[in-house]
Amino acid sequence: MVGTMEEATRIPGYFKNKGILITGSTGFLGKILVEKILRVQPDVKRIYLPVRAPDTESAKKRVETEVIGKELFGLLRETHGKGFESFIEEKVVPLAGDIIHENFGVEGAQLSQMTQEINVIVNGAATTNFYERYDVALDVNVMGVKHMCQLARQCPNLEVVLHVSTAYVVGERQGLIMERPFKQGETLREDDPQLRLDVDAELRLARECQRQLAADDAKQKNERKAMKELGLARAREFGWPNTYVFTKAMGEMTLARELAAGDGPAVVIVRPSIITSIQRDPLPGWIEGTRTIDAILIGYAKQNLSCFLADLDLTMDVIPGDMVVNAMMAAAASHAAASPPPEHHRLPQQPPTVYHATSSLRNPAPYAVLYRTGIRYFEAHPRVGPGGRPVRTRRVHFFATVAAFTAYMVVRYRLPLELLRLLNLLCCGLLSRLCAELGRKYAFVMRLVDLYGPFALFRGVFDDANVERLRLGMAEGDRVEFNFDPKTVDWDDYFYKVHIPGVMKYVLK
Fold it and tell me: What positions does the domain Fatty acyl-CoA reductase C-terminal occupy (predicted)?
């Protein structure tokens, strides 16, 4: 049972003198989390950041460059002034490690000290490539979770484990989607209720396929493509649309099996939907990487997007990155405060508590909001082309179904491509290079539609009853400083004044 913040402690108060391990700190969400903890609770004991690096010095440089050195930390840097670097050195511990290895590759005295100090583990590391190699996706999204759980069991003072998943682990489900964990072996194939998902069998399958491909010289050249195709095939066998969400679902199952079934700390899963730029603090509009919806903005800005697969009446479930982090911190503090102390971890744990960091239920934003604010923004702030002349914005044609988009692509591109190939034969191959290039572009677009279609046309609504209970249980002051209520966001205002300018400034530099 989650206790209220009045009964327990204010969120910043909980993180005082705590040791925290955060995986995925070089990612967009990880950076926001590290910055927020350091800013609101400078008395945090230590934050351990494992990053892929050959040695400690390289890890330190990577954290300095890819995390602490970002514009996001400007307010924190300004607050501490000349003492900023010494503050960071005291609080942040870069580790040369990788979640694909046991204990993340950390050994000896460093491992011993870290496990004694850790009170909170936040697992945010993941590969988010929809079309990732199956072996790679399993290593990070499944085995990474297993290694995190093994490490957690070595931490005698651990109070809470928070795992970052994605709302889209539910695949293409429609209607109201509840905040519930997966059952072991569960699949999304409603047409075959007897089908079971064996995570260990999938791990063995991927290893065996990779071994066979590596042993065959003729197949080695196509190993990367073969492993990608394997992941997609296995995902769709069990009802998931792509390798990313499939392996994230298996990661959740692994977490529940490894930690929640026995004695141990509180276990929480946070499932964000599409994470967008920071809404409020510390830097409104700050964003890294391209979100799914930002392909529309970037294509529109560059004027190389004439059509897109999206139903403007459907909801694009988006949530600002700072709101996701606020929900994560609130969940960690609340569950840790409500759970028994580590020395009393003797009762069987309940399944992990799931929180949907989403907006589709209480403040849905249709794709039309993005489109109309995009038009307004680029009309008011036109892009400048060669010679300093403003680039005239063109309207984008949207297709509300995959069938309509495919038909358009066939008539607009596929048929001309076939005619070009015929002409190439008549010209004795003089147009071969052009044919190959156009063929690759067409195949690329159709592959994107195949992979992103289920998200662009997603018709589910994410329930957020657990999130709302968490919010209502917070102290009044924390509800402001750690706001994650989607009803407080005016989407037109946010996209026009915050998100689109942020994408233009930080992504499309």
Answer: 413-509
